[in-house]
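Hey, can you fold this?
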Amino acid sequence: MSFNTFGKFFRFTTWGESHGPAIGCIIDGCPPNIQIKAEDIQKELNKRKPGQSKFVTQRKERDLVHIMSGVFEGKTTGTPISLIIYNEDQKSRDYETIKYKFRPGHADYTYFMKYGIRDFRGGGRQSARETAARVAAGAVARKVLENKIGKKYKVVGAVTQIGILGSNPNNWDEKFIGKNSFFCPDKRILKLWEKYLLAIRKSGSSCGAVIEVRAKGVPVGLGAPIYSKLDMDIASAMMSINAVKGVNIGSGMNSAKLTGEENSDEIFKRGKKTIFKTNNSGGILGGISTGQDIVVSFAVKPTSSILKERKTIDKKGKNTSISVKGRHDPCVGIRAVPIGEAMMHCVLLDHYLMNKAQCGN
């Protein structure tokens, strides 16, 4: 299997399977002399790890990260950083009854048709367990950007929709996001989400979600047109996350409903500052950052592993049915928030270094 590496200047390669002994990543291109410790990475991993509430999978993984190389006396050395996370709570027996069947909505069928073999234990490499390694890489990227840009740099993600229930963007409360199990920014919708998702789980089904990620303090000028536009690379990064089926930058798909005067963000000067009246562009014009907040949202499909019986075929091509037991998220989108944040950090650092190489600033 090829293409396990992400990035151009700041690159990381992930490895490992859902039910293997460990997962991890190797980071290449990290600048030297950046202060970092395992606790900095662990803080981000703790936001993603399973088993933290009744609304996510009950697989119990501590997701403890170990720095194997590339850091000396608390600082990066400029050499490859190797990170490893040991798997601790695999229950491969949960998959014994379905190992010859293809789960509808999963990549079982396509993996098998492409490679002629598949790891049925939790999906192997196709499992979202791989994303823990991305979050670890994103934590390193975050530390570099905070060092280079300063305290004004910040990335915040939140769930803005669960199933058919959307939150009110006017009620966005950044402090509230980290105080609830849903990464919900709207206090008024939380109780309704809880009731809705518990009913979905009880019925043996699942639902999707929409996640929004905002990056603040991003300097003007990041992005390399034509074939490495900042929004292009962000969209690609978000689409690479398991179960993501659509990405919006700024107004995104809603831009088609707007008129030219509604969509274009008017510009004016206030003293020495350049001000944009609105941010329909999501902080990116012509593939280059404007200095505004970069605003990205992405849709995560419903969890494909559900108790409700579905029709499928087996490895021999015979018709059969399947009901997937085990420990699964009723809404996998909830734990996608720190993954989206991590991918944003990685893309922005990649482009920051790219811009530094070409323009020297």
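Oh, and this one too while you're at it.
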Amino acid sequence: MKVRSQSGWFSNGLFWRTFFLLTFLITASMVAWVASFRMVERGPRAEQLAAQIVSVVTITRAALTHSAPEMRRELLFDLASNEGIRIYPLEKSDRVMPPEDSPMVPELEYYVRQSLDENTLFASSVNDVDGFWISFNIDDDRYWLMLDRGRLDRTSGLQWLGWGSIALFLSLIGAGFISTLINQPLARLTAAARAIGKGRQPEPLPEAGPTEIEEANRSFNQMVADINRVESDRALILAGISHDLRTPLARMQLEVEMATLSDEARDGMHSDLAQMDSIIGQFLDYAKPFDASNLDSVDLSSLLQDVIASATRLPDVRITSQIAPTSEVAGNATELARVFNNLVENARRYGKTPDTDCAEIELRTRNEGHHVIIDISDHGPGVPESECERLLRPFTRLDDARGQANGSGLGLAIVNRIVLRHNGKLLLKGHDDRHGGLLVQITLPLMHHRRHA
């Protein structure tokens, strides 16, 4: 299960929080269960092993006591080869190593000494021979009885580790599955909300599953329907108002032409009417619906060259460019051309270099990974960094910052709306102390990346 984030595989997302929380709880439960089991079973296990040892010692001692002297050698051989039991005389010179330190050893020694003899000795090694050694008496003679350690040892630590690893692995798979079930509806909801933020129409969320998820998805679907209805109504209202306003504007232009006015007054009224017509056009552009299914391959380099050619014909614009040779994006050529023409016009109106009547515009593109980045900057009065985000809102103007009062405040809002609909990102950067001006940076996904995504 691959969960991607801005920095790589792992993130601070809900999936990994849920996964690691479940992993921690499962691991802690397993450790607590194993510890509790080993503590609870220690006494019964020690008593069981003690009974087994006592039985072996008692049977061996009885066999040696009641067997004929000439048969004891053969009996000892059979015990060693078939049962893994070895009998050695106990000498004072024996090099004895005490039993290994284990929580169960004291209890084992206690139960064995209760059944055999208080003076029974235990050892883990005698004369450098490893095993489980226990002493016993036959009349006045003392002997060592050695058992293979594996015959008495409990399940080894490696076995516990192996079983625990298998259980933990299966538990992690289960934790991942549970985390996916919990977070999948939230991931689907997040993707749908992100699509709405980019101006796209998401698929309706499934209204099924747990009650909380079902209600959340139903509410979200209803919200999307309400937004679409509001958007449609707003577009209809703006389009209707704009259309109705153009009729009296045309009448006013005709009346201005026929009226007896001075040239200065006539030019001023023509300018005001043209500005009103331009604002109405911006209303229509902002309200116009967008069909994301009709995106074609657009040669961005060629489109920008056309924009530059149109801009250089303006007397108050000087534009320098550095265009990447090949940049194909998926989009609507008309809409993308409107984006860059609006930005050039915005720089021409508000970004003239101080003490001049000319807007010096720089347009550069570069490819980075699967995206193309377009930078459009001017050297005008600039915009404070704190106001850059607000400029992207509809009907927003910074008259003091850019020194103008014309326009409807929809230019950058239209640009941002079109960029978002093309799966892109628009960023404004305010002036600095050296160069001044405003930098508009647009990031769009390249066409070959969309094909392989």
